[in-house]
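User: Predict the full complex structure for these chains.
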Amino acid sequence: MAELKLVKIGGNVIENREALADFLEDFAALNGPKVLVHGGGKEATQMAKKLGVNVQLIEGRRVTDAKNLELITMLYAGKLNKNIVAQLQALGCNSLGLTGADGNSILAEKRPSKPIDFGFVGDLTEVNQSFFKMLLDSGISPVCCALSHDGKGQLLNTNADTIAATLASGLSDHFDVSLNYCFEKNGVLLDLEDDRSVIQTLDETNYLKLKSEGVLHTGMLPKLENCFTALKAGVKQVRIGSPKIITESVNYTQIIN
Amino acid sequence: MAELKLVKIGGNVIENREALADFLEDFAALNGPKVLVHGGGKEATQMAKKLGVNVQLIEGRRVTDAKNLELITMLYAGKLNKNIVAQLQALGCNSLGLTGADGNSILAEKRPSKPIDFGFVGDLTEVNQSFFKMLLDSGISPVCCALSHDGKGQLLNTNADTIAATLASGLSDHFDVSLNYCFEKNGVLLDLEDDRSVIQTLDETNYLKLKSEGVLHTGMLPKLENCFTALKAGVKQVRIGSPKIITESVNYTQIIN
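Assistant: Here is the predicted structure of the two-chain assembly.
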């Protein structure tokens, strides 16, 4: 099977014009089929303030009511996604921006409102493999933002890490998928204050050990859960590191079974 | 050649939730390959106010500076386009939202800044026929908003009527294209105050005559210029009327050579 590189970038890259330009240059230079998944960053909160949209948090997590969904649809699927696509085109990378509604590409169910109602948030159910395969076979790189849909007319806010893992898993029937989580650290760190403390390889046993010891912090846990889920679903390689891992020999954390 | 229906809807449909739902139901029910092009409506002006973005007009026409471009990218490519796509999916119509940057689908050049600098406005240069054909052959209906790109990283605000005509022309190599302009009137009217005064058929000679007599008003002129350009480029049928023309036997204006 052909190799496919799936890269997820988060807020730290999205929010910094220069970092984003650097990253997109690297991404455009990757050979072979590739997919980009991007998060949203903090601009949603800033824009909510400007537009007078209330941001409600429950247990530290944002509630996506109708107005917030509208706002992130404008920001993620509009401003961020389309500027990334336009920049990639300029770099000779034929890309196509997607929400889960486009081409019925990523389906989800609205998360149950019990015990906590997080609003229009989606739990993924299905990836439209044949649609992604058609694009990739035509030399087009899908650029996915963090929105899925329920097939009944509703867009749903969805965690970008989970979209990346689910896409990687779904595409593993057709490709040897390498899943790359790029964020603000050089990898999974033993000591959050020390960027040199990158864990080279991490398997589930060690993950559970470090988790029980409290070494791994809260934000990293769902990301790592996504990694193990992807590996179990047939994804060939899962890496966590800085955006540089896709082109350079730098440190990163390899997640293994 | 197979028939292709291209439908352009303007602000009056976009701005009215019920009218839009009605139209999308009709559009989804159309058989065979089809393309939707949508304008933006007045929400851009309202949102500019909310966000404190200045709207500059020169000779009655909006100037698209960087902040206004960002705003319409959020609104047209984000909110409007993605909600249309999600609603079409719910109606069983597999659609895909596009700016001109997506799939390198619609290329343009930034309009020269002399004599008047309208900012980030695009004059169309090319339609990526093979991309549209691939989508249509796969049963996917493209949904295009009024943004093109220059291939050098810049999105460009582009008249939706012109996008519709240029797309219709470009796709005429592969399809018998029927181009339908749907707007708030029942067709081209002899008397703007009388909705029953629909001109049944209009050729260029009559158009020039009515134009010189001042019967046709300013907003209609560029739309009709687009119609004649499309016909000359091989589009089979061009119609102007209410959104109902795509499914019902209602009055409309047929533009002929």
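Chain B touches chain A at residues 50-52, 70, 73-79, 81-83, 85-87, 89-90, 94-97, 99, 101-104, 134, 138, 140, 147, 149, 151-155 (CB under 8 Å).
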